[in-house]
Amino acid sequence: VKVSILAIQCLCWVLKMDLPSVRLKIKEITVDLFSVLHKYACAGLSNKGDNYDLVMITFKAVAVIVRDVKHFQLEPDQIRALLLYCEQDLDDYSRQVTAFSLLKAIIKKKIDAPELLDVMKKVGDLSISSNQDSIRLQARQVMLHFLMEYSLGNRVEYFVSFYLSQLNYSHETGRASSLEMLRNITNAFPIKELQANCAAIFVNVSTSLVNDPQPECRKQAAQIIGLLLGRIDNNCKDKLFDVTKLWLEDSKKSHRRLAAQIIGLFVAAEREKFEKRLLEILPLILRQFVDDFQEKIPGRFVLLNPPVSVSNDETISDHHMYHVLHMLVKIASICPNFLKNQQYLDYIETIGDSAQSLLGHAHEWVRQAAVQLLGQIVSATPAIAYAEAINDPSLERPGFMLTDCSNKLRSLTLDLTSQLISSEEVNEKFLTQCMKLLVYIAEIMKSIKLTDDVHSLSLMWLVKRIRKKINYEVIHSPKSIIVRKMCFNWIAAVAVKLLREELEPIASSLLFPLVREMSLVEDNSLKKSAKEAASYVKSKLGNDTYQSLVADITRVLEIKKADRRKERSQLMVTDPERAAKRKIQKQLKKRGLKKRKI
Where is the composition biased (Basic and acidic residues) (predicted)? Predict the structure, then answer.
């Protein structure tokens, strides 16, 4: 047996050469190789020992004949036998690699046999059900090679339908493998063949976008739809978009959520060309807000506590609203005329008002998407246009925040500052979006004419709102630094945006929290942020003015510190009960510190 193994190993190399002796003896060699397989390649063959090695090298030699020997074709009986061995080997994990190698050689030669279809069905099952990543990968490769090389006619639909049906497979690996195969099909199929199957792929993969519990599978589904939309022609895209519109009009929120996600993929695929669809979908988009908020709109400036328990309906509603907002953010980013074209003004105003009311939503993702959309809508109009409308009401015109501009700007500012709360779960990206919009609001307010009313809109009024949030965190959440860090970044951005003469009136108020933080002994990231923000203010004001302001602020802080010290020393006489409580709290704190040291 060992001699036979070595002989066949040598034969594998010899067969690759087009030698006269090979041409003469190839038929005999093939018959002898098949006789070895008939004798040793039984179903229960052990995966160890000389017999196993002999079978493996014989299969390899047959694969060389099929793949590399151009002047010889196997007999129909030999092909049937070979496919039978392949089918047996696919059931044995130790010989699956050999089976795939043979199948690749058969498919490359385009050898046709009735039994091949049954073998490929088994390959399809293996690409889903195998526990090994490498086997699933090889099965997908063989299947794609088969679909691309053979003219299967209606049988292509069978294999596409098979993989679509596996999108509900119980194990994640099977669903992921099915999606990967569908991605390969979408990427590799000829356009004509793809367009014939695009509706089935679109509808079935779209359901995975919502129903699949695994984020990675949902991501794969989105990639497939994006790839599909990028390859099919406009006629097919229009038909698929009509289906999407039906979902957007559906009474079920899960369908409307799916439609919002799909429209986002249409926007990404069509880019600026998507603008032609805006007028037909904007009325449907407005209904997404009305249907959800016609009964109850959260109060402005009210921070909603997260619910203790969230029902499935509430979760679907949250996801639906998030994806609607995310879709609008995509449209605003990719279609530049959406926010500037006069024919969309009424829609934009309603969308902006709805997005602002969502700043009181319980779900942070919804609030983040709402802030992002508001930032795009507000910044689409120059800051000076808002200021002029506030200074001269006769200049007000249709558009978001361009009618009753003063009250709406105040309302938006208060809504945004109310998001600045200290929490372990707070999303820094969300707060950054809020601060970016507040920086733009500062650009608006710098051009507003000052009046005698202390409550009128001005830069100083905005700075006071920001400082109020800083002080609140210092008093109620001293261990948290997220709000102060964001506010310091806002101060730095404002200092960069304003001219020196615009910055000077508010410089003292801006520097006060920075100087207080820089005067502390602890050297941490917050102190670093304060120093960085102060350096921007200093570069704009000049060193002399900056040092003078810092000296004044330091003096005020020292006076306040001395007053607090004096008040504490007199507390035992003026309020003994409060003094006793304070003493107990101090002792408990010391005891806690000692325990930590131990």
Answer: 567-579
Residue 321, C-beta contacts closer than 8 angstroms, at least 6 positions apart: 288, 292, 358, 361, 363, 366
pLDDT tens, 531-556? 999 999 999 999 999 999 999 999 99
Contact 488, 466 (CB under 8 A): no
Distance CA 102, CA 113 (A): 14
pTM of the shown model: 0.82
pLDDT tens digits, one per residue of 235-261: 999 999 999 999 999 888 899 999 999
Residue 76 Cα to chain centre, angstroms: 53
Among residues 541, 565, 584, the one where a domain terminates is 541
Q: Are residues 472 and 584 in the same domain?
A: no
Q: What angle do CA 82, 86, 92 make, to 5 degrees?
A: 145
Q: Is 84 exposed, middle or buried (0-12, 13-18, 19+ CB in 10 A)?
A: middle
pLDDT tens string 491-515: 999 999 999 999 999 999 999 999 9
Spatial distance between the Cα atoms of 230 and 297, rounded to a whole number of angstroms: 39
Report d(CA 583, CA 49) in Å as an integer.
83
Q: How far apart are CA 219 and CA 209, in angstroms?
A: 8
Distances (CA, A) of 448 to 213, 458, 498, 595: 51, 6, 14, 56
Task: Write out the residue range of the structural domain in which residue 593 sits.
Answer: 546-597
506 and 446 fall within a common domain: yes
Is the same domain home to 496 and 568? no
Contact yes or no for 385/359 (Cβ under 8 A): no
Q: Which of 541, 557, 589 is the last residue of a domain?
A: 541
How many independent structural domains does the chain possess? 2
Let me know if residue 256 belongs to a domain: no
Query: What's the length of the chain?
Result: 598
| Same-domain check for residues 556 and 509 | no
Does residue 497 belong to any structural domain of this protein?
yes
Q: Are 532 and 576 in the same domain?
A: no
Burial class (CB in 10 A: 0-12, 13-18, 19+), 510: buried
In a domain, 410, yes or no: yes
Residue 167 near residue 205, CB atoms below 8 Å? yes
443 burial (CB, 10 Å; 0-12 / 13-18 / 19+) is buried
- Please tell me whether residues 533 and 465 are part of one structural domain: yes
Q: With respect to residue 30, please indicate whether it lies within any of the assigned structural domains.
A: no
The C-alpha torsion from 446 through 449 and 454 to 458, rounded to 10°, is -20
